[in-house]
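can u do me a favor
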C-alpha cells in the first residue's frame, strides 16, 4: 500500500471516529436533557401546584380561594400521568362544592386527600423517569467509551506504525547510500514493492547496478593499465622499487630483484624495515626514508653494489609520491619510488680519467722540478752572466714552471681525493704557524702586485685539530686567490679569531668580489666564475673544501660583489 494511502486512511479513519464520538455524545446529552426537562415540566410543576393548593386550602380568605383556583387551573393544563386527569377532576368537583358550602369540612378533607394522591402520582412518575435518565446516562457512557477506545486504539496503531513505516526505509536507504559511497556497489535495497519506497528502492538498485557495471568495466581497464605499467617498469634497464607510505615494498622490477639478491616473494609485500635487518642493500636504500631525512629528498647518491660477481655503481634517486584525494584540498603522501641509475660505465671512465690525470701529473712533476732547478743554475752568476733579455726570459719561464707545478699539484690532490687515497694526519697544530707559513709562500706573489698584508692576531691562540700540511696548502691557496683577484697596491687582511670552542682564520681582500649567484658554486670542482681572466683550474677551492671538511672543519665565504671577499676557515680547538 502506498504511504500516501496509508496516511489518508489512518488520519481519515481517525477523523471519522472523532465525528462519530461527537455525534454519539451529542445524541445522549440531548436525550438526557429531554429526560430531565420531562421531569421538570410534567411532574415537578404538578408537585408545585399541589403544594400551593394545599397552602391555600387551609385559609378561607377570598385571596386563598383565588390562588387555589389559579393553581388548579394550571394543574388541569398539566396532566401527564395515568389517573391524574380523574383525580384532578375530583378535586375540581369538590372545590366547586366547597365554594358553595364553605363550611363543609368533609369536602375539604376529600380535596386534601386527592391533592396528596396527585402528589404521590407525580412523585412516582419522577422516580420512574429518573431511572430512565440513569439508564440513558449509562448507555451514553458505554457508547462514548466504546467509540473513544476505538479512537485511542487507531491513534495508537498510527503512532506506533506510521513513523517506523516512513523512518525505517529512510534509515535503510541512508545505510545503503553509505555503502555505495564506500564503493560497495553490490549493495541493494528491498522495500514493499507497491509503496513509494518500493519505487525508490527500484531506482536505487538500478543506480547501484549501473555503478557496479561501470566499476567492473573500469576495473578491467585499470588492471590492463596496471599490467602495462608493470611490464614497462620490469623492462627498464635500471632497478626501480616502489614503497607505500608505511615503507612496505609494493613493487620491484626484475633488475631491482636481481641486485637485491632476494626472491620476488621475499621482497614484494614485505616491510622494508623488516628486510633491512638482513639485507644491506635495502637498508642503505631505505635508511633515509626510515629516519625521515627530508634534506636528502630528490638528492642523488652513488651506491656501490656487488652483484653477479662484479662491482656496479648506481645513482640513487628517491621520489616522494603525493596525491590529492578527490574532494579534498590537501595532498597526502602515498608512497616513495626509488630509482637506481646504473652509472658503472661512467664510473669506470671516471676511474680511468682519474688514473690518467694522476699518472700524467705525477710524470710532469719531475721534469718541472728539473726545469726549475736548471733555471736556478742559469741564474747563478758563477756559471755565466746573463744579459737583460735573457734574465727576463728566465723570469717568465720560472713563472710558467711555477704555474705548471701549481696545476700539477692541484691535479694530483684532486685525483687523491677522487680515488679516496687522501691521508690525513690530524694533530694539535698552531694556527699562527700555519698562517705564517702560507704568508711566506705567497710573499713574492704579493710583492709583484705591491699588495701588503695586514695581520690581526689575538694573544694566546689555542692549538687546533688539523693536518698541518693540508691546512697550510688551503691557506696558501686562499691567500694566493686573494692576491690574484685583488687590485694592485691593495691590502689583504689576515685575521685569527677565537671563540669558546673554535678558532677561525680569515682571509679578506678588497678585490672584485663574487656575484651572489656564484657563491655556492665556487666550491664545485672545475668551476670558475664566468669571465674570470686569471689563469686557473677551478680546483683550488674544491680541494680546500674537501681538505678542511675531512679534518672536521668548515670553510665559508662572504662576499659583496665589487667590494671584496672574505674566506674563513673554522677549526675545532684542541682540548
Ligand atoms: P681558480 O684556479 O680558478 O682560482 P679556485 O677554485 O681557487 O679556482 O676558485 C674558483 C673561482 O672562484 C675562481 O675562478 C674565481 O672566479 C673565484 N674566486 C676565488 N677566490 C676569489 C676571490 N678572492 N675573489 C674573487 N673571486 C674569487
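np, heres the sequence
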Amino acid at each position: 500500500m502506498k504511504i500516501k494511502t496509508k496516511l489518508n486512511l489512518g488520519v481519515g479513519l481517525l477523523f471519522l471516529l472523532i465525528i462519530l464520538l461527537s455525534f454519539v455524545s451529542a445524541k445522549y446529552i440531548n436525550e438526557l436533557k429531554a429526560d430531565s426537562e420531562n421531569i421538570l415540566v410534567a411532574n415537578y410543576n404538578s408537585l408545585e401546584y399541589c403544594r400551593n393548593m394545599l397552602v391555600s386550602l387551609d385559609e378561607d380568605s377570598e385571596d386563598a380561594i383565588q390562588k387555589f383556583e389559579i393553581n388548579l387551573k394550571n394543574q388541569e393544563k398539566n396532566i401527564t400521568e395515568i389517573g391524574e386527569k380523574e383525580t384532578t377532576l375530583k378535586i375540581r368537583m369538590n372545590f366547586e362544592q366547597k365554594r358553595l358550602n364553605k363550611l363543609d369540612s368533609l369536602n375539604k378533607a376529600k380535596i386534601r386527600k386527592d391533592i396528596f394522591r396527585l402528589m404521590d402520582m407525580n412523585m412516582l412518575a419522577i422516580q420512574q423517569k429518573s431511572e430512565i435518565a440513569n439508564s440513558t446516562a449509562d448507555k451514553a457512557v458505554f457508547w462514548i467509551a466504546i467509540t473513544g477506545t476505538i479512537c485511542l486504539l487507531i491513534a495508537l496503531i498510527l503512532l506506533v506504525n506510521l513513523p517506523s513505516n516512513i523512518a525505517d526505509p529512510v534509515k535503510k536507504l541512508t545505510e545503503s547510500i553509505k555503502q555505495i559511497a564506500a564503493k560497495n556497489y553490490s549493495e541493494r535495497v528491498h522495500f514493499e514493492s507497491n509503496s513509494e519506497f518500493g519505487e525508490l528502492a527500484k531506482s536505487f538498485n538500478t543506480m547501484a547496478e549501473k555503478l557496479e557495471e561501470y566499476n567492473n568495466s573500469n576495473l578491467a581497464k585499470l588492471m590492463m593499465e596496471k599490467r602495462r605499467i608493470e611490464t614497462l617498469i620490469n623492462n627498464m634497464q635500471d632497478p626501480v622499487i616502489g614503497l607505500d607510505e608505511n615503507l612496505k615494498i609494493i613493487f620491484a622490477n626484475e633488475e631491482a630483484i636481481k641486485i637485491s639478491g632476494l626472491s620476488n616473494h621475499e621482497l614484494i609485500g614485505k616491510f622494508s624495515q623488516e628486510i633491512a635487518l638482513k639485507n644491506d642493500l635495502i637498508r642503505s636504500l631505505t635508511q633515509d626514508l626510515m629516519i625521515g631525512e627530508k634534506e636528502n629528498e630528490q638528492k642523488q647518491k652513488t651506491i656501490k653494489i656487488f652483484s653477479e660477481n662484479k662491482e656496479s655503481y648506481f645513482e640513487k634517486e628517491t621520489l616522494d609520491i603525493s596525491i590529492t584525494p578527490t574532494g579534498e584540498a590537501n595532498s597526502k603522501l602515498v608512497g616513495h619510488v626509488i630509482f637506481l641509475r646504473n652509472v658503472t660505465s661512467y664510473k669506470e671512465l671516471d676511474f680511468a680519467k682519474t688514473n690518467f690525470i694522476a699518472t700524467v701529473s705525477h710524470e710532469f712533476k719531475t721534469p718541472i722540478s728539473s726545469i726549475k732547478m736548471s733555471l736556478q743554475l742559469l741564474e747563478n752568476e758563477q756559471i755565466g752572466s746573463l744579459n737583460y733579455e735573457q734574465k727576463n726570459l728566465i723570469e717568465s719561464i720560472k713563472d710558467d714552471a711555477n704555474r705548471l707545478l701549481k696545476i700539477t699539484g692541484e691535479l694530483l690532490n684532486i685525483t687523491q681525493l677522487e680515488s679516496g687515497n687522501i691521508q690525513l694526519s690530524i694533530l694539535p697544530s698552531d694556527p699562527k704557524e700555519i698562517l705564517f707559513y702560507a704568508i711566506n709562500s705567497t710573499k713574492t706573489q704579493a710583492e709583484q702586485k705591491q699588495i701588503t698584508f695586514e695581520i690581526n692576531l689575538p694573544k694566546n691562540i689555542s692549538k687546533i685539530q688539523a693536518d698541518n700540511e693540508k691546512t697550510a696548502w688551503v691557506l696558501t691557496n686562499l691567500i694566493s686567490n686573494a692576491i690574484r683577484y685583488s687590485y694592485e697596491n691593495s691590502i689583504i687582511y689576515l685575521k685569527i679569531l677565537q671563540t669558546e670552542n673554535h678558532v677561525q682564520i680569515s682571509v679578506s681582500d678588497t678585490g672584485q668580489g663574487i656575484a651572489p649567484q656564484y657563491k655556492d658554486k665556487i666550491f664545485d670542482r672545475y668551476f670558475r666564475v664566468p669571465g674570470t681572466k686569471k689563469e686557473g683550474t677551478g680546483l683550488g677551492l674544491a680541494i680546500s673544501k674537501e681538505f678542511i671538511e675531512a679534518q672536521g672543519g668548515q670553510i665559508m665565504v662572504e662576499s659583496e660583489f665589487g667590494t671584496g671577499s672574505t674566506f674563513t676557515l673554522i677549526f675545532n680547538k684542541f682540548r
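The chain has 14 helices and twelve strands. hope that helps!!
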